[in-house]
Amino acid sequence: MRNPGGGTVEKFWIRLGGLAGIIYVAASASGNVIEPTPPSFNADPSAIVSFVVSERHLIVGGEITTAAATLFGLWWLGTFGYAFGKLANDRDPLAWIAVITGVTAKVFSLIGHLVTALLATLALQSQGLADGVLDRALLDLSQIALAISFLVLGVFVPTVAFAAIRRGIVRAWLGWLAVIVGIINAASGVFALCTGSFVPSSDSLANGPLVGIGTARTWESVFFVGLIGFWFIVFVVSVQFLRGRGAVSTSTGPESAPA
Prior knowledge:
259 residues, 71% helix
C-alpha cells in the first residue's frame, strides 16, 4: 500500500524493522556478555560438567536473551527482504542471497545456543550431568552448529552491505569493511570445525589440522572481532532503516547515498 505523499506506510514498516535490528544487536550483544566463556574446544567431559554446573544460571540467562534476540533478527531480515525485494521491484539477487544466508545463519546459531541451554537445564535437574559422553557430544554439537553459522555469515555480511550500497542506503566503504568482516567470520567457522574432540588428532593446536597458525585464545579473539563487525554492519543498516531509507516513494530508482 502506497500513498501519494511518499510511501508513509512503507516507511513506517521500514522504520519498525530498523528498530528491530537495533534491538537485535543490543540483545545479542547482551546475551554474549551474560554467558560465560565455555571450556576449550578439546576440554575433557569433567571440565565441561564442572563449567556447566557452576555457571548454569548465567548460561540459561544468556541463552534466553540470545533466543529473544533471534526473533528480532528474523524480523529485521524480513524487513530487509521486503525493502530490497518487494518495494525495490528489481529482484536484486544480492538481497535475496542475504535473506537466505541470514535465515540459515540464524537457524544454526539458534540450534547451537539451544543445545548449550539444554546442557544448563540438565544441570538444574536432580540427576545432574551424569553422562560425560553425552555432555561432550552436546557441547560438540553446539560448536558445530555455531561454526556453520559463522561460515554462512561469511557470505551474509558482504551481501547485506553491497545490497544496501546498490540501493544507495549506505556508503561504499561499508562494503569493503563487510568483506573483511565476512572473511574473519568464515575463518572463525573454519577454525571451530577444525578443532574439538570430534576432529582426529586435535587434542592441541600443536598436532591438529591448524598447526602453526595461532593459539585457541588468539582465535577466540578473532571470533569476537568478527561478531562485533557483524553487529556493526546490521546496526548501520538498521539506523538507515530507522531514518526511513529503504522505502520507495513515487520514484522506483535507488535513493541517494546518505549524507
